[in-house]
Each structure stands twice: as C-alpha cells, then as structure tokens.
Amino acid sequence: MLIPPLLVVVVGVVMALVAAGLSEVGSEAAVPSVVSQGVSPLFTPEVRFWSAYILQWSKETGIEPNLIATVMQIESCGDPFARSRAGAMGLFQVMPYHFSSGENPYEPGTNARRGLAYLQRSLERAGGDVRRALAGYNGGLGVISLPEALWPAETRRYVTWGTAIYEDARRGATESAALLEWLARGGNALCAQARRRQGQVIPPR
Fold it and tell me: Which residues are marked as active site?
C-alpha cells in the first residue's frame, strides 16, 4: 500500500520527537547528577567554605561531592596551605611528585585536579569500593588489593573515619559521631589553622 507523502513526513516527525524524548529520559536515568544533593551540612565550616568549588570539581571529575568533602575534611580541613611532615601539600595533601614543573601545589584548583585525579585512580582500582579507595588514597594504590589486616595503622584509622563520615553525609545526617571523634583526636587544631589561613586563599582557577 502506498502511503501519501505528507503522512510519511508527519509520521517521521512524530517518531523523531518520541525518540528524542525517550533518549532524554533514558540519559537522565542512566547518568544521575552527582551534585544534586550538594555538600552535606555535617562538614565543618572550614570545609563548607569550599562548597561551590567542591560542586564544580564534582562535575568535572564525576566524584560524588560528599566524598570530595570527606577527603578534604580529613586531609586538611580546608586549609589550602596545609603541609604534612611527609611533605604532602594543600587541600588534598598531594605529594610533590604528582605536580608538573611550574605548577603551584598550594593553588586550590591545581591541588584539586591532582588530588582528585589520584582519588579517581583509586576508585577505579577499587572497583568503586569507597572503603578501599580511601585506603588507596591514604596508603598508596598497592594497599587496595591487600587484606585490611595488612594495611598500615594510619590507613586503617583514615578509612574508619572517612567511611563513617561519608556514609553519614550520604544518608543526610546533620552531624557525625565519626567526625566529632576525628576532631577530638587532632582535627580541631587542623581546622583552627584552616580558619586562620582561609583569608589568604588564592582563588581557584
């Protein structure tokens, strides 16, 4: 049976519109926004200071914003000039060998790019297992495949606090017992230092 040309055009347009609608709905379902929930209010003010940037870095990397905030909380409490005894630097406590020549490790955007690239690698190596990814971020990617009993004590503490804080943030809690414990175990001093230094912040690029 021959179909009139005008009907062919109309049917084609309708089918195209339907297909486009289905495609849009499907893409939204398959790729939910990682920033829809924002940064949890349970993090300390020094970390929430960076909320707008955390959301931007989340969009750029695909890492859930509360996981980014959790790592920042434990690593530096939002102090862009933090430096550890081991030589790790900045918001995400990135070791010097991760930076290219000429990069400023204390520039927040640069530090975030390098630190979150390493966190991405750790998540990939851990198959998305946040607990093991946090272990890899703290203790090196090599620990991910090891039994937890063989992780360094520092890494076990880091993972215990980090996992609990992150889970509290994900479930919408407004406070975290794990975060309070971390603060009592030395985090308060780190956050006090962050408050003093945040007035010297170099705007992220």
Answer: 75
Residues 176 and 67: their CA atoms lie apart, in Å, by: 14
pLDDT per position as a tens digit, 103-112 = 999 999 999 9
25's tokens:
């709905």
From the list 205, 165, 191, the residue with the least C-alpha distance to 82 is 191
Its pTM stands at 0.80
**Distances 96 to 90, 122, 152, 197 between C-alpha atoms, Å:** 10, 18, 22, 21
Task: Select from 1.10.530.10, 3.40.800.20, 1.20.1270.360, 3.40.50.720 the CATH code of 32-200.
Answer: 1.10.530.10
Binned at pLDDT 50, 70 and 90, residue 199 comes out as confident
Per-residue pLDDT tens for 75-98?
999 999 999 999 999 999 999 999
